[in-house]
Amino acid sequence: MDPARLRDRRPGRAHPGDRGCGPPRGGAPCRREHSRVLRTAHGQCGVLPAGGLRRAAAGPLVPRVREGTLTVTVGLPGTGIGGMFYLLSALAMPLREAYRLARGRAAPGRWAVVAGQIAIAGGIIAGLWATGWLLGLGLAAARPIVPLLGHAPAGNVLRITTFVLTFGTLGGVLLGVELLRLWHRHRPRRDDSRGLPASRAAAPRAKRRRARTLVAGILCIAVTAHPRPGAAQQPTKVATRLARADSALRVGDSGAAEREYAAVLAADPENSRAVYRLAQLRRSEPAEALRLFQRYAALVPRDPWGYMAVGDVLARSGRYGEALESYDRALRLAPGERDAVVGRAGVLARAGRTDAAIAAYRDWLTLHPSDAQSWRELGRQALRAGRPADAATALSRAQTLAPDGATALRLALARSAAAPAITPLAGGSWDSDGNRTRRLGGAAELSVGGATRLGARATRETVQHGDTTTGLHELAVHLASQPRAAFNLEATAGATLADARPASGPGPGPGPPVVRLQTRAPIATGELRARWRAPGDGPALDVRARRAVLDASPVLVTNGVVRTELGGLLQLPVGRGVKVRGIGRAATLSDSAQLNHRTLVAGMLAYTATPTVEISGQFHQIRYAHATTAGYFAPRLAQLVEAGSYIEVDTPRSGFVALDLGIGIQRVADQGASIGAWRRAFNLYSLIDWPLAPGRDLRLELDIEDSPAASETATAGSWRYGSAVLSLRWALP
Question: How crowded is the C-beta side of 172, counted as CA atoms within 13 Å?
Answer without folding.
Answer: 19
